[in-house]
Specification:
single chain; about 140 residues; 4 helices; about 30% helix; about 15% strand
């Protein structure tokens, strides 16, 4: 990809991205390049200095995030949010549908549902977020 400095016949200057210099020439010839200010198709390329990245200008290497730590924090946050919701138990799928269709008060709920029920809820456009159970919840 390249960024080209362009100008229309009304002297509006702008930049545009193209796959290559040849792609710009092809699009210009086909009348596909226009000024974003006045929609003129009389566009010309302006001279521009090439950008060359040298090693002295490269960004310093950032340490890679520990994905296990991030995942653990996310699950912890989800469990904390779930603990503030109403536990509807095995009625989860039915109650989620009732809330979605306006037949029940909108509120945060949690509970259990089969994989088939979860897939049906998703297919129906009902927003759900499965959260893995805490090891203390498994007794």
């Amino acid at each position: 990809m390249i960024v080209l400095d362009l100008c229309c016949d009304h002297e509006h200057r702008f930049e545009a991205w193209f796959a290559s210099s040849e792609a710009f020439d092809t699009q210009l010839a086909a009348g596909l390049v226009s000024c974003p200010h006045c929609d003129s198709r009389q566009v010309r390329r302006l001279p521009s200095a090439p950008y060359v990245q040298t090693s002295s200008h490269s960004a310093p290497a950032r340490p890679q995030p520990d994905l296990k730590v991030i995942a653990a924090r996310l699950i912890e946050a989800l469990r904390a949010a779930a603990s503030q919701s109403e536990d509807v138990g095995e009625r989860f799928a039915d109650e989620a549908r009732r809330i979605h269709h306006g037949e029940a008060e909108e509120r945060a709920i949690r509970g259990q549902a089969s994989s088939a029920d979860l897939l049906e809820l998703i297919d129906e456009g009902i927003p759900i977020l499965p959260v893995p159970p805490d090891k203390d919840d498994l007794h």
